[in-house]
Amino acid sequence: MKMNKIIAGIMAVCVMGFGVPYVNTVAENNSVITASAEDETKYTEGTYELLTYKNYGDYIEISGCDKSATEVVIPSEIYGVPVTSIGKEAFFDCSSLTSVTIPGSVTSIGGGAFAECSSLTSIEIPDSVTNIGRWVFDGTLWLESKQAENPLVIVNNILIDGTTCSGDVVIPDDITSIGHSAFEECKSLTSVTLPDSVTNIGKFAFSDCISLTSINIPENVTNIGDYAFDGCKSLESINIPDSVISIGDSTFSFCRSLTSINIPDSVTSIGRSAFYGCSNLTSITILNPDCNIAVYCSTISHGMYDEYNYYFYGTIYGYENSTAKAYAEKYGYKFVSLGKAPEKDTATGDMNGDNSVNVADAVFLQKYILGGSELSEEQYKNADLNGDDYVDSFDMVMLRRMIIENNK
Fold first, then answer.
1. Has residue 38 got a pLDDT over 60?
2. From the CA atom positions of the chain, what is the Rg in Å?
């Protein structure tokens, strides 16, 4: 079963951490628990009929269910608080469960939420659900039935499963997202054509599709998730359009047939080990001089390696005075300059004008929110991260998350 798969490999530790510890606390029922020191989210645990839940104050997440349950109707609210999500593995291995009705208040279903519910044949999923995790329905009769009807299983314009596909696959129009692990280990898949409607490629979406040789990435895709093409050893080339903003951790790791790749200036971050194990990749062109490159994100292995030593015999192309150049010099990689970087506007979130988004900007924004400083018109524009024409604490929350993501 996929849930038990062990993903092996060497992952580098990110430096320059704006680190936030995770508080993993066991508490009694209905006691307050701090879930994360990042946003100081707190919740109380409780039970409702056969369900267990976490109450975060203004919303509730279903976190578990009694194993004896057979037919479950999830309420839209519990004691006046709306139920908005079903947590990770909430119903995992509820083998007696035959049907589930999800209310229109729910927008998110966590990874493995109904995995191994071997008797589950009926699931009512409302249009409100826009986020579906990895392996949510793995091991259910419901998924098997959907696969028999069509090898492309689609829920609310999210392609959640295509693992029974083979050969050349054309994804239908109106699909907006390729879900997490949608084609993972689909070993007979050779090529994929995505429609322009796709904006997101989820984590592990095409991981270990060992026969995949080509895929088009539409101009509207903004995010390519962690491990999206990990282990696609036959993938010979890939286009990254100007719409892409981020490339996740190990996205193209062990794509052994890749020889070169161009990363457009729209990309602002490249995850750890993004090209690790690409043994035939000889050049990487990075056009954004301020692209945030995680440690070892472009490490390419040739021959023997161990957990402390990495080898790279290719070339990194980038602008002068860029992160790419600093990265190449620091780790001894060959660097070819593309000349002076073109001038561009300051980045969203950059309020002190140093062309980066960091803790200094958070301090600057905090002073403004508390009335201790003023913002110029351009600074105000860059500080309005949620685009509501106001600069307030909501923008501070978004800025903190940006800084944390940039330094993972």
1. no
2. 23
Sheet containing strand 122-124, strands side by side: 71-73, 99-101, 122-124
Convert the pLDDT of each residue in 255-268 to its tens digit.
999 988 889 889 98
Reported pTM: 0.68
Tokens matching residue 284: 């990487």
Give the chain's domains with CATH numbers: 1-141 (3.80.10.10), 359-406 (no CATH)
Distances (CA, A) of 287 to 144, 230, 298, 328: 44, 23, 14, 14
Q: Are 171 and 159 in contact (CB under 8 A)?
A: yes
CA triplet 209, 213, 219: central angle to 5 degrees? 95
How far is the C-alpha of 30 from the C-alpha of 145, rounded, in Å?
A: 39
Residue 149 buriedness (CB in 10 A; 0-12 / 13-18 / 19+):
exposed
| Strand-pair category, 108-109 with 131-132 | parallel
Burial class (CB within 10 angstroms; exposed 0-12, middle 13-18, buried 19+) of 29: exposed
Bridge partners (DSSP) of residue 44 are: 32, 55
E strand segments, 177-243: 177-178, 189-193, 200-201, 214-215, 223-224
The first and second tokens of residue 313, run together, are 């015999």
